[in-house]
Amino acid sequence: MKAAFFEGPGKIVVRDTPDSVCPPGGLLTRVEACAICGSDLRSFEAGSKHQGQIIGHETIATVIEVGEGVEGFRVGDRVADCPVTCEKCKYCEAGSNNLCLQRGRVGGRPQGGFAELRPVLASAVQGGFVVKIPGDILPEHATLIEPLACVINGQEKLDWRPGASVAIIGAGPIGILHLLLAKRQGAGKTILVDLKDERLDLARKFGPEHLVNGGRQDPVDEVMRFTQGEGADIVIVACVSATAQAQALEMAGRMGQVLFFSGLPETSPMVTLNTNLIHYHELRVVGARSSVKRQWDMALELIVSGQIEPRAIVTHTVSLENIVEGFALVRSGKALKVAVKP
């Protein structure tokens, strides 16, 4: 089979590798689509611990072989699988499986989705971490289930009040999903900030009240102007930027909430923040990572029911052989979500 291997910063190589096999008690799938995530781009640009591996985790695939003893699945089922957790630690018992210390390692490390074939481990099948995807959804559209579940997890950390003003830094697919969910939460004024006009132009159709190019305008000043000097009730950082994290505190109003949704590169995770703003303005700053199976089910329902329309978000598809072109499209800002179709 062909697969894309991450070989270090700026280098992904597509090459032949032995076919994946069906694991005992698991499934063997043929990948239909695997979308490029912001974390994939961060690894591609800055490097990560996944060097030498097949990456990609926003994967939709069709079952082509069912392991011995597996029940509830058959050849032809379209599936996606969540990270497997231990179900025993204090985090899992509290329902925060995304914080499980064994997350993604129970039963072995799963192979990434930038490949023609992908095994689904027995631990995922037997633990109930596999989601069946209806066949009437295009696979590239269904790849939004994973990032949408993560956005749901992030927004569940916030206290939503009707009419809240919301500033979102980052107009990529994650920022757009945050915008759409914020509107569903009853947000009032919504402000979307990005450094690229191309991204802002793509985002315009999703209905933010205000668009700000943070490269030409001071985003803090603009948010203050749009909120009559009060600052935003909620600020969501949906981009990989230490500057944006610092600006988020500056543009939050008193008693505001700040969500650090996006992390920073492993090689440069430090940032200087004005913590006096947290103290004197009584800000609440929270982080969010990944999601739990319950949120995957919620994301699937939002897409199946048409409440979240993926067609305008997944703007491009590329072949596996052209995966580097897909990363370039994401980096350029000319695309929102790019799906790789082997």
Describe it.
It is a single chain. The protein is an alpha/beta fold. The chain folds into two domains: 2-147 and 291-341, Medium-chain alcohol dehydrogenases, catalytic domain (Quinone Oxidoreductase, Chain A, domain 1), CATH 3.90.180; 158-287, NAD(P)-binding Rossmann-like Domain (Rossmann fold), CATH 3.40.50.720. The protein contains twelve helices and 15 strands. The protein has helices at 38-46, 90-93, 122-126, 139-142, 145-155, 173-184, 197-203, 219-226, 242-251, 275-280, 293-304, 323-332; strands spanning 2-8, 11-16, 27-35, 58-66, 78-81, 117-120, 130-132, 166-169, 190-194, 210-213, 232-237, 252-260, 284-287, 314-319, 337-341. Helix 6 links the parallel strand 8 and strand 9 (190-194). The longest helix is centred in the middle third of the chain and has 12 residues, at 173-184. The termini are close together.
Q: If classified by CATH, what would the architecture of the largest domain be? A: Alpha-Beta Complex
Helix-residue proportion? 25-40%
User: Which residues form runs of ≥5 with pLDDT under 50?
Assistant: none
Shape: globular
Specify the number of helices.
12
CATH top-level class of the largest domain: Alpha Beta
Taking all Cα atoms into account, the compactness measure Rg is: 20 Å
- Helix and strand pattern: EEEHEEHEHEHHEHEHEHEHEHEHEHE
By DSSP, the count of extended strands is 15
Going by CATH, the homologous superfamily of the largest domain would be Medium-chain alcohol dehydrogenases, catalytic domain
Give the structural class: alpha/beta
Query: Main beta sheet: strand number and arrangement?
Result: 7 strands, mixed
* Amino-to-carboxy terminus distance: 10 Å
Percent strand equals 15-25%
Q: Kindly state the mean pLDDT as a whole number?
A: 94
**Total tally of structural domains:** 2
> Might you state the CATH topology name of the largest domain?
Quinone Oxidoreductase, Chain A, domain 1
